[in-house]
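[Q] Does anyone have a clean structure-token version of this?
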Amino acid sequence: MARNTPTPGRRERSAATPRRERPVWCGAPERPARVRPRPTTRRPPPMSAETAETSTGAPGDVEDVAVETLEAPAPEAAALVPTFVEHGVQQAIADALAAKGIERPFPIQAMTLPVALSGHDIIGQAKTGTGKTLGFGIPAIQRASGPGEEGFEALAEPGAPQALVVVPTRELAVQVSGDLTAAAARRSVRVLTIYGGRAYEPQVEALEKGVEIVVGTPGRLLDLAGQGHLRLGHARTVVLDEADEMLDLGFLPDVEKLLAMTPAGRQTMLFSATMPGPVVALARRYMTQPTHIRASEPDDAGAVVKAIRQVVYRAHAMDKVEVLARILQAEGRGLTIVFARTKRTAAKVADDLVERGFAAGALHGDLGQGAREQALRAFRSGKVDVLVATDVAARGIDVTDVTHVVNYQCPEDDKTYVHRIGRTGRAGQTGIAVTFVDWDDVPRWGLIDRTLGLGHPEPVETYSTSAHLFSDLDIPEGTTGRLPRSRRTRAGLAAEELEDLGETGRGGREGGDLARAGDGADPSRDAPQRRWRRAARAGVERHALPAA
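[A] Here you go.
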């Protein structure tokens, strides 16, 4: 029987459905003596809809699915971890990693590699920044055969994808693909990134030439699979990265369609920071006796919060940019991410900062894909040192050397707060998180504070001239809301080339409100049309519009 086809007798029944001759008992305290024993090679019965909806995502829920749970060692024990080769990694892959300065695996990698290299299914519970990408990427590369390598010509369909990695956002797809490409640098294994916002033709052409590993977002993957360009019948390894984020974005139905296109004997690895009920149910349906690997203790969110110095201010809307401009001139400030709740706010704050002399870029869903990638490249390279982003656009982004995070608007909940401030204070480095709370958001902040035990129940009322602002964040006295010309040393966003991606203008599947054609990539090109639309609403004739 095909692995992905649920047994009819094993489906959950409603209360009105007559009991079958051989009932299925899911989690009952006592089992009747005449129930047919479940073979050890079969996976557990699927979770019912009611259980999935009420599941809290506690580790016990995962342990009901997994046959074993492993805890990754503490970070301070990383020096005792054996080398990649000692974990069974091919020498060519280890050499490629060494060329990038990666000599030994991180704790999550050390726990994942032995299990993954043996072909077993894995549920990895780890957040972004723990090194999980190589934990699933190395086994995917090692199991694949590239052109000219042993076993390639013997494949049923040489050049068809042998591994599929599904991620929730375009930015994460680029990031994961880059890590896999670096690890496969001394192999002939080809890695292709597939996501929306780019032209179809280059992706179709690459698939026709042949690739071994595909990294992509659900919407574009389904599009190309539906058109017959992406054939997943030989994908022996499937990875679902950031599964909880895909759930939040509504992608799980698309993920299930993709899984149905893969062979029954595949290896499936699922990684998620949290394990909500629907993700656990997905693991029940599509994984066989997985091993649960946890990169940190269940109170990891609290550990992240405590590792970062946090300051909370009750700031006034008309003074926020002034306060922010002074924070950005604090001593020792490096790369900084400013989080906003809306696309409009992100765009406005970025524009205000640029006007004040800061090297800033925006990252939000109304930008074209080319502009989004331009902003990320400029931020990573240091051409801009301030990135103003929305939560959706910044999901999964892993940038090193971020010293400050500023919540320009109060986060929606504690999970969003931890995700935001977790962009700093990584790999043992220090970080500072500053949160602005409006009057209307004080109750919301109080709930976040109580949930995480932050000890900041009453945000301090703060203005751009408040003495404690300067002392709290080591801002030099006399600092104003504009960056002095002598300190404007960064090249800025314009110095980063805007790549022509042949953008499709189709949004909505990858991340909800995503890129729209090339208009967002070059705002000046769209300015005449915007002026015309505004004038048309005001009843002005088109020929009466002033020149651009």
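[Q] Thanks! Anything notable?
[A] The two ends are 66 Å apart (CA to CA).
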